[in-house]
Design goal:
Length: 146
Amino acid sequence: MRDTFLRWLKFNAVGALGIGVQLALLLALKSGLHLNYLPATAVAVETAVVHNFLWHERYTWADRVQASWRHSLPRLLRFNLSTGGVSILGNLALMKVMVGLGHINYLAANGVAIAVCSLANFLVSDGLVFAHGAKGRSAALAARPK
């Protein structure tokens, strides 16, 4: 339980950095380049997803994974399809409702969307992408005769 709580704190620290990346890019794309808020949100979220993956692999779940291109690329794909999917679909749906229908400021709405998706992303990351034994399974698969 204590390990999960400490990992949750690390996850949120990385997430806080990712929020900065996401909001800064959303602001630049929407206000600076005048993109529509939905494509700008998708690009900003995907950038934050990749940013967060790199930190999670080297910090949040460093004890569970072997960071190498061979192991990291499939894990990045799983991360992108799972937590990235939750983030992008969740953010776009919530942004459409809050900004498109509710006329809430796009940055405030994006902050709410991030918070709503956070718990689901931690659970998916901990149980699927960076699961216990992932390091051992990856090493065993790599060592298996072909």
